Amino acid sequence: MSIELWQTWSNIGNLFFLLNIILAVIIIFYERKNSSSLWAWLMVLFFLPVVGFFLYFFFGRTFKKDKLKHQSAYYHPELENISEHQLHEVTTGSFHHYSSVTRELEGLILMNLKSETAPLTQNNRLSIYTDGRDKFDALFEDIRQAKDHIHLEYYIVRKDTLAKQLLTLLAEKARQGVKTLLLYDAVGSNSVNKEFLTDFLEAGGKAEPFMPSKLPIVNSHMNYRNHRKIAVIDGTIGYTGGFNIGDEYLGKKAKFGYWRDTHLRITGGAVHSLQHRFLLDWNEASHQHPIKYASAYFPTPDNHAGAAIQLVSSGPDSELSQIKNGFLKLILRAQESIYIQTPYFIPDITIMDALRVAALSGIDVQIMIPDKSDHPFVHTATLSVIGDLLDTGAKVYTYHNGFLHAKTLIIDRKVVTTGSANMDLRSFHLNFEGNVFIYDREVASAMADIFFRDVELSGELTIEDYKNRSLSEKARQRFARLMAPLL
Predict the structure, then answer these.
(1) Is 229 a catalytic residue?
(2) Is 234 an active-site residue?
(3) Where found (predicted)?
(4) Which domains does the chain have, with CATH numbers?
């Protein structure tokens, strides 16, 4: 190698070394990151000085909430008034509770009102779906009956049979004059293109990707994804949960087998909250077809007794981790039992400490994770983290009957939260998520019964199993755990 060439490469190396130092300073002093994430990124920069720089550019930068459009014009005009009125009533002790559960959990309701402007609706009826075929049968039938509008928002839309069936049905409704909108995440649904959507768009439907790349190949915000799953039909029926749009959710992929998830069909006031969330997300994504408030989107719901629900959203556009804080508040509030189902279990230290304290205090803590995973490295980290609970008396199950993708937290058979958020750092801090918090004994008990039916299809992970891991397995799990804040 000539002296000139060596000098050139030396200068390039010095440049990246200097950039690494500058980036490390920025991460330490200017980026708002939790300590585990901070140290993980510093290690990446130290051990991968060139590659780490580019990894941080695409995956590590803090989301700037001012990048989102100002959307105050699109808010439901009475939503903030409703929330402020409820906030005043709760703080002054004059709020009218329809059940003892909401009265007992008034602190959680108050926190959600303060941090998320999440009104409590107390007139909801729900259907619980754990099988994709049942969920999509119900959704497709509701779409067929739609008269005014159909609003769909999904993280993943595959280019496969189920998605084609859905688009065919949506195109048919669009030709009938039903306003039909499809919002999909640009990274989660990266196979979707205009060619795939042609018939739907030509029929009058509209589709938008959420936060697509401005460059042809790379997406500088690919780490911040819209993970929500929402459907609203005519402003009276809403769906939310864990199912995306794809054949695997019908159990048609041999890699996963049966797909076990949790999804809800809701009628009542909570549909307005789902509608409002959809409209905000649509207007963030759409530059050509923004939507303004219309009364047809918020018809008056039936005033029947039902479950009390708050829809809580969180994402990198907020400094508060609203859903994670809701999880933490519920765990700390538990007196008898905590049942968790999640495909990925990588919570932060506050959730882990709360679960450990609960289990050591004699509370029945039971957690279920999949036996197999769609993300092996994340699953390895999950197995490492969850082992820390085994010596506290908590029970851990691995689901064997296919792939477990359900995201539920059930407390004392009184309250349950489910939606798009996993029990992991990505859902807590990086993804745009949405969960319903349901204050209802009947619904929470039904969810708990489903949990224990799944226990019959699972194996228990014991402290002996954890201690008897091979050295190579321990090494893999420790490395995955170390990198967990980046996942």
Answers:
(1) yes
(2) yes
(3) Cell membrane
(4) 3-62 (no CATH), 71-109+120-309 (3.30.870.10), 322-486 (3.30.870.10)
